[in-house]
Amino acid sequence: MVAETPIWRDRLTAEERAQLGRGAGAISLARPDILVVGGGIAGVATAAALHEAGLGSVLLIEAGRLGSGATGGAAGLLTPEIHEWSDPEPFVDLARLSLELWGQLEQTWPGGVGLIELDWIGLAPDPDGFAPHQRPVVEWLDHDRVAELVPGLARPMAGALIRRQARVNPLRSLARLAAVLPAVATGTAAMSVTTEGGRVTKITTTAGDVYPGAVVFATGMPPMLDGLRLELPASRVKGHLLVTEPTPVRLPGTVAPVATQLDDGRLLVGGTFDMGDETPAVRQDVIDQVPGLDNAWLTSGHFRTGILMAPVTAATITRWISAGEPPAEAAAWSTDRFTQRPHLRR
Ligand SMILES: Cc1cc2nc3c(=O)[nH]c(=O)nc-3n(C[C@H](O)[C@H](O)[C@H](O)COP(=O)(O)OP(=O)(O)OC[C@H]3O[C@@H](n4cnc5c(N)ncnc54)[C@H](O)[C@@H]3O)c2cc1C
Q: Is the peptide bond before 257 cis (omega within 30 degrees of 0)?
C-alpha cells in the first residue's frame, strides 16, 4: 500500500514542527536591514548565516510553511564526492566545502543541525564500473566484499565505497537553523518589488509592505515578481521519494541505486526525475547579485543538490553582502554564465 504522507515531518519534535509555522501571516519587522524571501534550506541557511554574522536585523518571509518547497521533499543526502563523476570541478570543490560547513554547523549550532555521517556504496553491474575515474577517496570493492556489506543482492557485483559522506532530515536542519532567527513570517508571500535608482526600496507582501536595506531572493525557482525583470533559464523538475515500512534489511549507509537506511529501519528509495520537456536542466546553483540592482541577491535553481549546497551558499552570500564585493567562488555561478560561458550551462 502506498500512503502519500510527508516522510520527514513525522520524525520531528513538537518544537521543531512549531518552528516551521512561525509568525504565520504577521510581519514583525517592516524595515529590516536584510529581507530573505523564501524559507527553503537556501533561504533559511542564508538568513541564519546573515544573522550570525551580525549584519543587522534579518527578516525571513515564506509563502507557505518553512520547507514547503523542494526542501521538505528531498532525500537529504550530502554526498559531494559522487559528483566528481558527473559535474565540473568548481562545483565539486564547492560541494566538498559545503559538506565541511555542514560538519561545522553540527559542531557549533545550538543542538546541532541533525547531521548523520554515512558511507556511500555504489554498485557497479558493469564490470568496468566506475573505473575510468579512479580517485584516492574511492575504495574499490570486489563482489565478495560487496556481498559482505550488502547481503542479499540477487547477483554478485563489484562496487565503490566512499566513506564519511552524510545525510540530514532536511526539515530538522531547517527547524534548527530557523530557531536562531528573531523575525520569521510564514504564510507571507512576496508579491511585487519596487526599485528606485538601482536599488530595491520596497517589497509588497501578502502581510504588508517591507522596506529592506538589502534583499536575498531564495525562492527555489528564480523569483517571478511584478517589478523584477529577470531572464534566467530555469525549468521545473518533479521528483518522488519512497520510504518503506521498517524492514529487517540492514544496509551500510546509502547503497546506490538501491536505498538509504534510515535510523528506524525504514528504507528511503528514490528519487525519480520527471522532466516535462526537453529544456536543458539548470545543473548547478545560481548565486549572484540581481542584474541591475545594488542591494538584491538571488540563489535559485539548486536542482538535485540544494540541501548539500545550502551552507556554502549561505556563507558566500553573507561574505558578499558583508564585503560589498563578490567572493572568488561566486564567479563560477554568476547569472551571466548563461549568456557568456556556455561550457558551464550543462
Ligand atoms: C525527490 C528529491 C530528492 C532530492 N534529494 C536531494 C538530496 O539528497 N540532496 C540534496 O542536496 N538535494 C536534494 N534535492 C534537491 C533539493 O531538494 C533542492 O535543491 C533544495 O531543496 C532547494 O532549496 P531551495 O531553498 O533553493 O528551494 P525550496 O526548498 O523550493 O524553497 C523555496 C521556498 O521559497 C518559497 N517562495 C517561493 N516564492 C515565494 C514568494 N514570492 N514569497 C515568499 N516565499 C516564496 C517557496 O514556498 C519555498 O518554500 C532533492 C529534490 C527532490 C525533489
A: yes
